[in-house]
Amino acid sequence: MSTSSVSDGILKFATQYSIYSGFIIFSFGVIGFLPIVIASSFSVLAYRNVRHLVRRQLPIVRRKLEKQITAMVLMRVIAFVCLTLPYNAYRIYVINFPTPQSMRMAYAIGRLIQAILLSILTTNYIMNFYLFLIFSSRFRRQVKFILVKICWQRWKYWCCSTNNQVEPDNNIAPRNSQIDSEENI
Predict the structure, then answer these.
(1) Which distant-in-sequence residues (6+ apart) come within 8 Å of 131 by Cβ?
(2) What are phi and psi of 129, to 5 degrees?
(3) How far apart are the C-alpha atoms of 145 and 111, rounded to whole Å?
């Protein structure tokens, strides 16, 4: 093999790798940070909309519900940003500065950090129910109704219903006098 073909191969690999790594960084930027930007911008717009509700002639109940929904959306977006941003930033850092597996301790620490941040990212999907439960009295009432009135009643009927009633046996066959007479013999 000539040195020019080896250097051409290395040069080709380096250009392809730079294109690939640029694509990965771009895709993580789009996949990771674009939802954060969109959610944040729309939550700011919703907040501005609620600020202008005071000037409009709307019923008080509707204004209260609008403020409650906007508070829920703002809390949801804040939680989304706080739980998603660390993992996305770490993934971009790891792509730019990879740790080789030969450095076992640094690689293990990197994997531990990734596991912790991934767990935090996963709580993003769990948190909606609890945030809505905290910030919305209407949501709390609905959850209470469903859990207590519907689910509890079904479970109580299914689990605790014991049928203690004595019922007569209606399947009594008429006595056959011929069998009785043969038994007596």
Answers:
(1) 72, 75, 76, 79
(2) -60, -45
(3) 44
